[in-house]
Amino acid sequence: MAKKITIDPLTRIEGHLKIEVDVEGGKVVNAKSSGMLFRGFELILKGRDPRDAPQITQRICGVCPTAHGTASVRCLDMAFGIKPPTNGRLVRNLILGANYIQSHVLHFFHLAALDYVKGPNTAPFVPRYDGPGIYKLSKAVNNKAVEAYLKALDLRRKAHEMLAIFGGKVPHVQALIPGGVTEPINADKIIRFYWSLQELKEAVNTIYLPTVYLVGKAYGELFKVGKGHKNVLSYGVFPMDDDDKTFLLKQGVYTKGKDYPLDVKKITEEIKYSWYNDKEVKRYPGNGYTDVTPDKKGGYSFIKAPRYNGLPHEVGPLARMWITNPVLSKHANAFLGVPKSKDVRMRDLGDKAFSIIGRHVARAEECWYVILAMEKWIDQLQLGKPVNTQYKIPKQAEGYGLSEAPRGSVGHWISIKDGKIANYQIVAPTTWNASPSDNKETRGPIEEALIGAPVPDMKNPVNVARVVRSFDP
Amino acid sequence: MSLSRRDFLKICGTSSVALGFSQMMVPGIVNALEKALSGNPPVIWIQGSGCSGCSVSILNAVHPTIQEVLLKIISLKVHPTVMAAQGTTVLEVAANISKQFKGKFFLVVEGSIPTAANGKYCVVGELGGKSVTMLDWTKDLASKAKAAIAVGSCASYGGIPAAQPNPTKAQSLIEILNKADIKTPVINIPGCPPHPDWMVGTLAYVLLYGIPELDENNRPTLFYGTLVHDHCPYRSYYEEGKFAKYFGDEGCRYELGCKGPETYCDTWKRKFNNGTNWCVQNAICIGCVQPKFWDEFSPFYEAL
């Protein structure tokens, strides 16, 4: 008979998440993921000035406010019928890129690492899951990892300081506006940004990537845990041209082993197991609707269930790296035993990519890939050229803005009437990943990834926590 | 080294413009704090309807660094974004610490507290097999704490969840405690998010000397005592009547919607992210340290 484990709260994430699993024969056989917080952003946005949306929606997440800000200004760009000039596009990329570095470093070292590394024997590092076979690093490697934890606190802080050069301040930047960014660039800012980036590049190459692969080596069996549906999607992020035709991390969908172009109209949200009422069984977010009912029978989450073409899809670094399939760092060659002269790409990892450690590797490699691109964007900035485009707020308009947060695809949809927000819908990354089951009883991505996770000790279900955190919810 | 209250105030108020960066506390003071607090007072940090932005902001502390705060100054027993533990253990640790250190521990609250639907809009975890709401957890822990610190505008005033139409009837910490007749003193450190120096500085002050001088919004005057507009580097443009017409234009940002004329804090000298930049220099002030700013100061990009 299956035995139930409830982890509530699942800590070291942003938000309030509850995870329930049924365990049979030492393995997870069923899983439920429940979002336990509702704030009502979509209701609060109604009737407000559209220009306030980027400020308001950044408050959805203090770890990736820039991503919501970016989706929101892209949404307004479309609704207002404008596009940023080259400098505006590049500065937006640099702001978001800086937050990728901050968020990825924070996630691995400060949110996820304590599932693999024993911290000091003092609060808040104790109590923790413990028992035979849980922590596998040698004493020397563990000590090095604790040092890296502390050092990484400086790295993420410096990434934020770099971001603020163009962003104004962070968390919650001032710079993002429809049509581009607020503040003109100058040589001082460019130089400071460039040298900050060099310092971070060095640290990612010598601390972040090696630590991830060290953990991967010590926990090799976790390349087989956390597979999930193996459907992934990416909206595309970091536009490489002013017409939004190509992205550094590409747009695309990978469903049941095949690649497809993204069709935004195939995105829907379902609410069968979510605490919302609706007469429709599913909706395109542009026509979305939010009627919260926390007492709904059968409901188990405040998170809706977004589906692409009716199927759950994982979003995040693994999805983006799988779809983009770029050349990885030389650390990957060493890890896979491939000569340095040869290129290793994300898809060369094969099925290993769809796993707990695969997600951490994808995240660290993405951090490196984005840094290399940021160096080029700094070079492309043009002194004396504008950073924004002027606009008028239309009386009536619709639009959407797609982008990618460090933790996955983020989409905002707006409709404007009488110059005010008539409807605003947000599908956040964790809405995709932590979603409950849908109308067809198909589990959400995190729920599905939990199936099969080994739980040898019911009191210390560390693999459950590891699977969930590998998504960076 | 002993540290007088007077010296401490002087250091906290030091202008970062003069120093070039936010030198709130020099290393010697970290040592003094460490010595004064040998015993590491327990701190329980809980999160309600928020975004964790205040927690991320405190990680940006420089003098002292967050490493020094965590390892030398306080004993952070509970913090859902940081702690190794998960599940019901989190609530058990909080319950045990609040019992063991009753009247001695400090409670930090981040995020507002939803009161509609009996608090169901924010469930913080399970204890004894039952769901616990942020509403109940806050009241229980606050009633036993020596003092409570509301970090961020959500805990201080309700913040964005409490913006109209306040779908979850979210309230501030003070509102919740007043209604429940809990007399624990509360200090507000608003800001969206607050500057790390405001959080670390207030925490240090409270640990060393008790409750600091507060204004009518329960904010420490030390950090929230000056009007942004009075000290703004663009003030002379305002006096001349030279107003920026679009972002990137030269002039005072009043017509772009700057709320500096009604906002009290010291970011004009302290600046954010290790003195890198600040709101008005980059765009406008949206008044994020003021009560009800989401409603009263919006539209943000219209002149006051």
Query: How large is the share of residues in beta strands of chain B?
Result: 5-15%
| Multimerization status | heterodimer
> Radius of gyration of chain B, rounded?
20 Å
Total DSSP E strands of chain A: 14
> Cα-atom Rg of chain A, whole angstroms?
22 Å
Percent range of helical residues of chain A: 25-40%
Largest sheet of chain A: 3 strands, antiparallel
Mean pLDDT of chain B: 91
Share of residues in strands of chain A: 15-25%
Widest sheet: strand ordering of chain B: 2-1-3-7-9
Strand arrangement, largest sheet of chain A?
A: 1-2-3
User: How would the global form of chain B be characterised?
Assistant: globular
Structural write-up:
Chain A is α+β, with helices and mostly antiparallel strands and 473 residues long. Chain A is built from twelve helices and 14 strands. Chain A is globular. Chain A starts with a strand and ends with a helix. The model of chain A has no long low-confidence stretch (mean pLDDT 97). With 304 residues, chain B is α/β, with parallel strands linked by helices. Chain B is built from 16 helices and nine strands. In chain B, the strands form three sheets. Chain B has a five-stranded parallel beta sheet, sandwiched between helices. In chain B, strand 5 (123-127) and strand 6 (130-133) form a beta hairpin. Chain B is globular and about 65 Å long. At the A-B interface, helix 1, helix 4 and helix 5 of A face helix 4, helix 5, strand 2, helix 6 and strand 5 of B.
Briefly say what this structure is.
With 473 residues, chain A is of the alpha+beta class.
Which short descriptors sum up this protein?
heterodimer; A: 473 residues; alpha+beta; three-stranded antiparallel sheet; B: 304 residues; alpha/beta; five-stranded parallel sheet; two-stranded antiparallel ribbon; 9 strands
